[in-house]
Please model this.
Amino acid sequence: MSPSTGGPVATLIGDVVRSREHDDREALHDRLVAAIEHVNAEVRPTRPLHIVLGDEYQGTFATVGQALHAAMTLRLHLAPGIDVRHGVGWGPVTQLDDATSDGPGWWAARRAITEVHDDEEKAALRLTRTAYAAAEGDDGAGGPTVEAVNAALRCQDHLLGSCDERSVRILRRLMTGEAQVRIAAAEGISPSAVSQRIRSDGLAVIALSHDLLRSAS
Model:
């Protein structure tokens, strides 16, 4: 296969947080594959997400917003048992073969996920799971503002990372448009208890933030 190069795209690189701590690696792999297949069917990437090595996966999307939507969908689909981190990069990408990407956009995504790794080592930023970077110079033109996107992502990640398992489940259902009455029945709690969690844990804020980020070009 000869290398193929197109215009700028949003590259998503992800991996599993503390994957070596999982006792059943085969079950981890199976759940990750199922989640990736779910996202590929829902979000329709320009190059489908696929596992490239161990628990690392990559894919490309037409917009940064689509890549961020894929990242959040994957995270919620795998939670609470599996936590994932993501780097999104904007810029041209060269497809060297079926499994190997290169180019300014790919390296921007690699830089972004490295930033997430670094932030996790800092107490104040330990809940960071997503970062965005653009290729340098003209290669990064046309993407959303890096500082604005990362400001929103840091706040979104902190709120989501502070939620307990029930609130994460409620958020997942809320973001698919499920009615609060049905969410309450599924959780075995009252509708008022669901409403209270949506307010106190900032679930509506997370959902709104995600919707705004999803619209990023």
